[in-house]
Design a protein that fits this description.
Keywords: Cell membrane, Disulfide bond, G-protein coupled receptor, Glycoprotein, Membrane, Olfaction, Receptor, Sensory transduction, Transducer, Transmembrane, Transmembrane helix. This protein has 10 helices and 3 strands. By secondary structure, the chain is mainly alpha-helical. It has a single domain, classed as Rhopdopsin 7-helix transmembrane proteins (Up-down Bundle), CATH 1.20.1070.10. It has a 3-stranded mixed beta sheet with strand order 2-1-3. Helix 3 packs antiparallel against helix 4.
């Protein structure tokens, strides 16, 4: 471990911004402040108004906390590297950033899945909503959404942290697990295979929960009046928009990580790689 922490990775993507890095620093700083302010405002408004202490709003608060966590793991680091002369990052921080960003991404999807389940209960069982979504049930769902990604990804990441790193190039603005593996001193293709299996555990249960919830909501809505259908749709739209927005950003990042994207302009790849960590934390509280 001492050998690993003495090494650094060169973040080659920053070279594209060499001529306007101070302007980009200002942009990232403003984005970070906007994310922090918007999400803190949302948490504060819900906390100070007792009538808003409903399960859906509690889940929204957890989503905001996770988005502050994710953006803090990325944007201050991006700004620090931008101001450096060498565009280097220590292996120790790089490994920590991989853990922070991957657990943020996994927790975000888990929270959105729990919010979908909450909408299912609210629309399909309105008379029993408060008895089903009791305080203890909400706490259990929050714990599941928070702890499950940490345990599952942590188990997988234990394979990566045992590697030694001989490569020194990280072709992104931030560190991701597969790039760490590519920089290892010995072939570690098994980690890529395990990563694909892990992806199933981190995505499939949540997808099944969301699909089940909205299939049941659609089935119930078919039997409702036009006005009730409109109210149900109005209840679901914020969640659906957040879900679609985050899914698009995640797909961009997964595709870039797993496939050769050298045919795509570097600027486009940079924007797409930042989508999942910047746009949802701004759009969701709004």
């Amino acid at each position: 471990m001492d050998n690993k922490t003495a090494l650094t990775f060169t973040m080659t993507a920053y070279a594209v911004m060499e001529n306007y890095k101070h302007w980009m620093f200002t942009v990232f700083l403003l984005l970070y402040l906007i994310i922090i302010i918007l999400n803190i405002v949302l948490i504060t408004v819900i906390h100070q108004n007792k009538e808003l202490h409903q399960p859906m709003n509690v889940f929204s608060c957890m989503l905001s906390i996770n988005e502050i966590y994710g953006s803090t793991a990325l944007l201050p680091s991006v700004m620090a590297v931008l101001l450096s002369e060498t565009y280097e990052i220590s292996v120790k921080w790089c490994m920590a950033q991989v853990y922070f960003l991957h657990t943020y991404a996994s927790a975000e999807f888990s929270i959105l899945a729990v919010m979908g389940y909450d909408r299912y209960v609210a629309i399909c069982y309105p008379l029993y909503y408060h008895s089903i979504m009791s305080n203890s049930k909400v706490v259990k769902l929050l714990a599941l959404a928070g702890v499950y990604p940490i345990v599952v990804f942590g188990s997988f990441y234990s394979l990566t942290i045992q590697l030694g790193f001989c490569g020194k190039v990280m072709p992104k603005l931030y560190c991701v697990n597969m790039e760490l593996v590519r920089n290892s001193c010995s072939p570690a293709s098994y980690i890529s295979i395990v990563g694909l299996v892990l992806l199933l555990f981190l995505v499939v249960p949540q997808v099944l929960m969301i699909v089940f919830s909205y299939v049941q909501i659609s089935r119930v809505c078919m039997k409702l009046s036009r006005e009730s259908q409109y109210n149900a749709l109005k209840t679901c739209i914020p969640h659906l928009l957040s879900l679609i927005n985050y899914t698009i950003g995640s797909l961009f990042e997964i595709i870039q990580t797993r496939f050769n994207m050298s045919h795509v302009a570097v600027e486009a790849r940079i924007f797409l790689s930042l989508y999942f960590i910047i746009l949802p934390p701004i759009a969701n509280p709004v």
